[in-house]
Amino acid sequence: METGAAKVGCAVVPAGVGNTELQVRAIADIKPTGYAGTPSFLVTLLDKAIELGEDITTLSKAVVGGEALPPSLRKNIEGRGVGCVQIYASADLGCIGYESEACDGLIVEERLIIEIVRPGTNETVPEGEVGEVVATMFVPEYPLIRFGTGDLSAVMPGVSPCGRTNMRLKGWMGRADQTTKVKGMFVHPSQIADVIKRHPEIMKARLVVDQRDGIDVMTLNCEVEGASQLAGDK
Hints:
The protein is built from 6 helices and 14 strands. The protein has helices spanning 2-7, 20-30, 39-52, 71-78, 189-197, 227-233, and strands spanning 34-37, 61-64, 83-90, 94-98, 106-108, 112-117, 131-137, 144-153, 155-156, 168-169, 180-182, 185-187, 202-212, 215-224.
């Protein structure tokens, strides 16, 4: 994102998740007009600005990605005067798709060939059916042939109301495997298994990821040995 912004003459201020108070004060001092990052952290910054009494209303537009953008979260952001569009990208492929001003699906980046396949197979699914996003990128420095992203999506029919004619995706619709994302970071089943191994009393466990006020929340539900007996003792 910063490379593209710099090419069109924007001054870019690199940051990251954390140091929220410092970042809010930097925004108030520098007065940037745009934000690029996860939508949940943008909400965190906007909330912190209110708490600190800092004016960051120069922040009027945002390109968000790295996690889902449900309608409630978009409404929350836009209700604070920040125009919001989303981008779908990965570390290997860069930008895969992006919203235009129409905000009607993700327009596929033209340097990519995108297929939607049935998870675990090489079979493409009919238009509109949900499947795994598979990408081919003929870039001399880093070519990728039928690279499975592990993400689920579906092809939208027709062209964008904005006039762009390339393929559109419905957006990020989950994972084809058991990996999930929490606040833009992947959480793998092996990590949950490592936690369980440290507590031999845990017999079964399930990680539940939900959203509260547009913010990802994960809860590890555990069934422990002797739980029924403990319940009876109460």
